[in-house]
Amino acid sequence: MTAGVSESVRREVERVFRRSVKGLEYIATGDPGVGLTPKDTVHSRGTLRLYHYRVRVDEVYRTPILLVMSLVSKPYILDLAPGHSLIEFLLDRGFDVYMIDWGTPRPEDSRLRLEDYALDFIPECVEFVHERSGEPDVSIVGYCMGGLLSALYAALHPDASSGGRLRNLACFTTPVNYEGMGLFRTWTDPSHFDVDRIVDRLGNVPPQVLYASFSALRPASQVAGRVRLWDNMWNDEFVTSYRRLQRWAEDQIPFPGECFRQMTKQLQQQNQLMKGEFRLAGRLVDLSNIRVPFIHVVAEHDHIVPYEAARDLIGMVASEDKQEIMLKGGHVSLVAGGNAVRRLWPRLERWLAGRSV
Amino acid sequence: MADDRPSPKPPLDPFAAWREWVTQSERQMNKVFNDMMGTEQFARASGGWIEAMTLFQQTMNEGMQRYFQAVNLPTRNDLSELAERLTAVEERLLRIEGLLAQAIGRRGDATPAPRPARTRRPPTEQKAEAPGEGPASK
Q: Does the annotation count A302 as an active-site position?
């Protein structure tokens, strides 16, 4: 017991020295590279890029995967670094992977609405995947708001069995009941949050506002994160992983203004999707039109999309083959980092493999 | 269905108590702040702050626009209009490209993808979750 304690103290003293050396390295070196998995841009339109990742095996599953990202963050969270990349993992497991990168909205993109994404951009990318792969259908995987966009697309397009292109749909932490959005719901209450004035004045919502909003959900975590960084400064793996995730968290992009107006009014304030009143281009969005194999993965400690906001999705979808899985972790650690490598990625692989032949 | 696999037991560490204190403090502080930020007063104050910030931003934008016009330089609006026109041209090209692709049977700039065999099956030793075999569907 005493030997164990003295060993721990000796190790801690050694770490103090290593922290000093590594701390200097931390300040001196730049951000680690991200999004490095080799890919080709097969379609571009405005800021949108459709990537096709280079296949890494000789034999792939028949159905390609299309990853759909959120509008509020950059897509490299799914491709952080070799060994820490969901995309690389899927490629190594024999999937043919495409991804929609929405890019960084420009001032003129402030006019973009959810209709543009669900009824124009995603269907167009699906067609490109079909033509490039030669396969009639595709599996769509959407993360956070990307899950919402994918679900809107799926609800408004026929599935593969009805002559459409969608074979499987996987959503991660996708909000549908905005009464469960906690502080976001309180902050955007129409009595003190005038979304019209914000969008009319600014066009796109600045990334600083988005970053401040997300940070405010866990205000003490910024400080605690720095303390943990110092505590683990001796540990190269921890530091690199921290930097990558921190870089992504701070790398916010503007939110297209009209889309923000629509989401705030119709979803956040009026909860129209949950009430079955949400319309896109005059068409009622009925999630029970989704009948393809469906999986919704939620995180047990998600503070951005709490379970209360996400849990109704599974009930709204009419697929016979559907499931909801709750995994340990938070909103980001669900898809990236050690937690994701152990939990989400293998589950996703197993779910997709049997449905991609 | 939560994933309840236990984490491996960590080795004896006298600094574990301090680390646990950091975690607990973080949790408590977050709760205190969240309770405060969930009040009507905070929401109203943040609404007021956003109102002031957007007004400031708008005033700045308008001031800068007047300045650039005075010194005969393109403003952000001018550039945005130009970008919009370029986007319109790009979209028109895309439509033409689509029509051409239909005519020749393949999309324009999509270079032919490498064609690996698309015959892969789930490995038998690692049983794939075939339809209907997943965890309890909800």
A: yes
| CA closest to B19 among chain A residues | A228
Tokens at A143, concatenated: 């993360």
Catalytic residue among A144, A157, A259, A312: A144
Q: Confidence class of residue B136 from pLDDT cuts 50, 70 and 90?
A: very low
In a domain, B103, yes or no: yes
**Residue in A191, A181, A184 with CA at minimum distance from that of residue A307:** A181
Q: Are residues B51 and B86 part of one domain?
A: no
| Chain B from 60 to 89: CB within 8 A of any A CB | 76, 80-81, 83-84, 87
B89, B68: one domain:
no
Q: Which of A174, A155, A166 is nearest to A296 (CA)?
A: A174
Q: Which residues of B touch A223 (CB under 8 A)?
A: 26
pLDDT in tens, A208-242: 888 888 888 888 888 888 888 888 888 888 888 88
Taking only the tens place, the pLDDT of each residue in A32-61 is: 677 889 999 998 888 999 999 999 999 999
Distance of CA A5 to the CA centre of its chain: 43
Domain assignment of residue B119, yes or no: no
- Number of structural domains (chain B) is 2
Pairing of strands A294-299, A283-284: unpaired
CA distance A46 to A49: 8
Q: Do residues A245 and A332 touch, judged by C-beta distance below 8 A?
A: yes
Domain-wise residue ranges, chain A:
31-205+254-353
Asked whether the predicted pLDDT for residue B78 surpasses 90, the reply is no
Side chain identity at A124, as an amino acid letter? E
Chain A residues touching B109 at Cβ < 8 A: 42-43
Are B33 and B68 within one domain?
A: yes
Q: If pLDDT is split at 50, 70 and 90, which confidence band does A26 have?
A: low
Residues B81 and B102 in one domain: yes
Domain that holds residue B35: 16-73
Q: Which two tokens stand for residue A175?
A: 């909000």
Burial zone of A308 (CB within 10 Å; 0-12 exposed, 13-18 middle, 19+ buried): middle
Query: E strands within A102-253?
Result: 138-143, 166-172
C-alpha angle A326-A332-A291 in degrees, rounded to nearest 5:
50
The domain defined by A31-205+254-353 folds into Rossmann fold (3.40.50)
* Shortest alpha-carbon distance between residue A356 and chain B (Å): 8
Out of B19, B30, B81, the one facing A221 most closely (by C-beta) is B30
Q: A66 by DSSP, 3-state: which?
A: strand
Domain-embedded: residue B125: no
Distance of CA A97 to the CA centre of its chain: 16
